[in-house]
């Protein structure tokens, strides 16, 4: 899978099921959707930036492709928002698949209105620095999980998971098997009757 169109559509597979299909690895700890119902799915475009600085995000928008997910290691900083409404507008205009921040964001109401799926560690009204340094396209980490350029990143109300690019096909097949098993158990649960 090397194009955004090759990845499962957002909401096609639950993050929890994908994590189960990876032996419950791959979940980015502490990173949550900023508005209910936000979903994303696509290959990662990675950025590693100095905490609280978003110059690298703006640079990444010069090369990011339609459907890619901007994934940013911001050092887990919660004091400066790496994105807000204006950056989200840019992401929407470029048809970016979503934004995942190991850092903070702001303008939550506006992000929801724009419909840009943003997942972050925190929310703060304080704006970012714009001086760098940064790195684009290498291996980073978010929430304790490594992410390489092109790895599959997916998010829903439960959080964010990362699947290594070379494992996507196997994980998708395993996730579908798990969903089939869950459907069988759900049907069995509906047949239960109280005792006594």
Automatic annotation (TrEMBL):
Family according to the record: Belongs to the class II aldolase/RraA-like family.
InterPro entries reported in the protein's UniProt record: RraA/RraA-like (IPR005493), RraA/RraA-like_sf (IPR036704)
Magnesium as UniProt keyword: yes
CDD domains tied to this protein: RraA_family (cd16841)
KW Transferase (keyword) present: yes
EC number(s) per entry: 4.1.1.112, 4.1.3.17
Residues annotated as binding substrate: 84-87, 106
Residues at which Mg(2+) binds: 107
Keywords tagged on the record: Magnesium, Metal-binding, Methyltransferase, Transferase
Reactions the enzyme catalyzes: oxaloacetate + H(+) = pyruvate + CO2; 4-hydroxy-4-methyl-2-oxoglutarate = 2 pyruvate
Subunit structure: Homotrimer.
Transmembrane segments: none
Cofactor(s) needed by this chain: a divalent metal cation; Mg(2+)
GO molecular function terms attached to this record: 4-hydroxy-4-methyl-2-oxoglutarate aldolase activity; metal ion binding; methyltransferase activity; oxaloacetate decarboxylase activity
Enzyme class: lyase
The protein's name: Putative 4-hydroxy-4-methyl-2-oxoglutarate aldolase
A biological process term (GO) from this entry: methylation
Function: Catalyzes the aldol cleavage of 4-hydroxy-4-methyl-2-oxoglutarate (HMG) into 2 molecules of pyruvate. Also contains a secondary oxaloacetate (OAA) decarboxylase activity due to the common pyruvate enolate transition state formed following C-C bond cleavage in the retro-aldol and decarboxylation reactions.
Top-level taxon: Bacteria
